[in-house]
Structure formats: C-alpha cells, structure tokens
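User: Okay, second chain of the day. Same drill as before: sequence in, structure tokens out.
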Amino acid sequence: MQLGTALAYIMPMYRPEKFWNRFAKRYEKSPVSNEDAYREKLKITRTYFTADSEVLEFGCGTGTTAVSHAPFVKHLHAIDVSSKMLEFARGKAEAANVSNMTFTCANIEGFSEGMADYDVIMGHNILHLLEDKEAVIATVYDTLKPGGVFVSSTSCISAMNRFLQFGLTIGSRLGLLPLVGVFSVEELVQSLKNAGFTIDYQWLPENSDAVFIVAKK
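Assistant: Same drill. Structure tokens below.
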C-alpha cells in the first residue's frame, strides 16, 4: 500500500471550508507579501474591465481584491467556501460603501449560475489549493462569455523537495495546512491552453513563485 493511501485511512480528510473558517481571522491579519507586485496586478486587471463588466471572483477570501475592483465594474460576484472569510469580505464592502457586490458561500465546482455569464473571472492564490485544477479551469472557461478573460495569480512550486512535499501532505491530512498542488508555470499554462484558453498576459514577479496570468476565451 502506498504511503498516501495509508494516510487516508489513519488521518482525517482535508476539508477546505473547515480549514479556512478556522484560519480566517489569522488570514485577514496577514500582510500582502509583495505590495508593489500586488498593486501592479490590480492595475493590469483593470485594463480588462469596462463599466459594463460582469465579474466573478472565486476563492475571494476576505475580499480585499474583490472590494478594490468593484468600483470599476458593473457587478462583482464574490464566492468562497468559507463563511468566516465572507464575513470579513462583507464587512470590507460595507466599510468601503461598495454596493455592487454579491457574496455567496460556494466553491467554483458547485457553482450553479448559468453558463457564459461573466466577462471576467478571477481566481487568485487558489488554483494550487484545488484537488482538480483542470476541472476548475474547464468550468471557468464554460462560465466566461466569448472573449472573456480568466485572471489568476498562482503559486507554482514544482521545484519543491520531496521532504517538503511530504510535510505538506501530512499537514493537510491533519488539518494544519491546506491541500497544496505541485506543478510548474509551464504545466499551468498548458492546463489553461488545454481548456481552450489563449494566454494574453503572463508575468512572474521577481523573487516570487506566483505567476500572474490573463487567459482569454
């Protein structure tokens, strides 16, 4: 029996909604790791918005990015599996007097709105935390209008050593760490292309493992 299979029998399964509910307060207090790169990503993303844009962000977390972008679009729908994260997000929207947002506790895999509804879909710091990123990318593609764009920022950590990978597996099984997928920038780009996207913009900031990609349907 392989080690991963054995662990499944003796350790509880990772439940993202429970994990992020438990860590929401700590997550909210954590600073942006690279403020300059973050601001540049906001700026680039807004070049794809119009006043009529319908936008979805999945895995919105505590809503900092969603609330920041909302004034530049017609409507922004933010979803996350964590109800605690969404409490922070709603509070930020209210504090910023932003009224063109909707918040839903959901994951993108089970999102039930009609297909081809959005001009822009955002998924930041989330693709590497999913069990099946290919399935999610396919769902994003189907949910975008023709010509729409998928904006993502994703940690690509394929160079991680085996010991660290094992530690992450144990940590996620114990509920101490989130599930972390291991893949390269090239593999992520290929996943996007396989789903039908073309890469419109790609940037890997200096001293960062998080690649910023705008993929067009």
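The first strand starts at residue 54 and ends at 58.

User: Thanks, on to the next one.
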